[in-house]
Design goal:
The protein is mostly beta strands. It has one helix at 2-7; strands spanning 10-11, 17-20, 23-32, 36-44, 54-63, 66-67, 70-75, 78-79, 85-86, 94-101, 114-123, 130-141, 150-152, 156-157, 164-170, 175-180. The protein folds into two domains: 2-141, Immunoglobulin-like, CATH 2.60.40.1630; 150-180, no CATH class. It has one helix and 16 strands. Strands 1, 2, 3, 4, 7 and 10 form a six-stranded antiparallel beta sheet that branches. 20% of the residues are buried.
């Protein structure tokens, strides 16, 4: 994470947090590029009941006051030696990650004010949410991560496939490539 911050790839310098009912949610890291924003939040003070799955009741993620057209979020999980899911780190904290896609709505996420609002924390499984701690938690910041692109136009063949790589845009967390195919793929129809 330190090397990513030094290169401008990510921003973990934000001292943004909110506390409600003994639970603190902080911005851990923000990584943005032209089309994608990845946000890691740290949750401290929330105790997950044994055998339960964490969930968030009501949340919003906006950029300069507008919702991104495509957003997802989820708790970071690991598996123990018995293949059991673990959501809580050894220090008792949890991590919730958001990913948003610009979907052609904006030219770039860079420089936009990010606002995350979380209404409650609780447990849930198969759409059965139960709030355990009420918020709200509101986090607002403008990340300083680098959204620059590296653009290359190699016009290079990909092995003996007949496919050529015409161009590529490579950013901190995504890549967009333009390929030239020798013929249309079977089942593909032109509009």
């Amino acid at each position: 994470m330190r090397r990513a911050d030094q290169s401008g790839l990510s921003d973990s310098s934000q001292a943004v947090s909110a506390t409600a009912n003994g639970v603190t949610i902080s911005v851990e890291q923000t990584v943005i590029d032209r089309d994608t924003a990845h946000i890691a939040l740290r949750i401290e003070g929330f105790t997950l009941p044994e055998g339960q799955y964490p969930d968030i009741g009501g949340w919003s993620l906006s950029f300069d006051g507008e919702l991104a057209p495509n957003m997802t979020g989820g708790f970071v999980e690991e598996r123990d030696a018995d293949d059991k899911l673990i959501f809580t780190a050894p220090d008792g904290s949890m991590e919730f990650d958001f990913t948003a896609k610009a979907g052609g709505k904006w030219e770039s996420f860079a420089g936009k004010e990010i606002r995350v609002v979380i209404d409650s924390l609780g447990t849930g499984d198969k759409a059965q949410y139960q709030a355990l701690v009420e918020g709200p938690w509101e986090l607002v910041w403008i990340p300083s991560s680098n959204g620059e692109l590296l653009t290359v136009q190699p016009d290079a063949a990909l092995g003996d496939t007949g496919i050529k790589l015409i161009s590529a845009e490579i950013s901190p967390i995504s890549a967009k490539v333009t390929l030239q195919l020798p013929e249309l793929w079977e089942g593909y129809e032109r509009c």
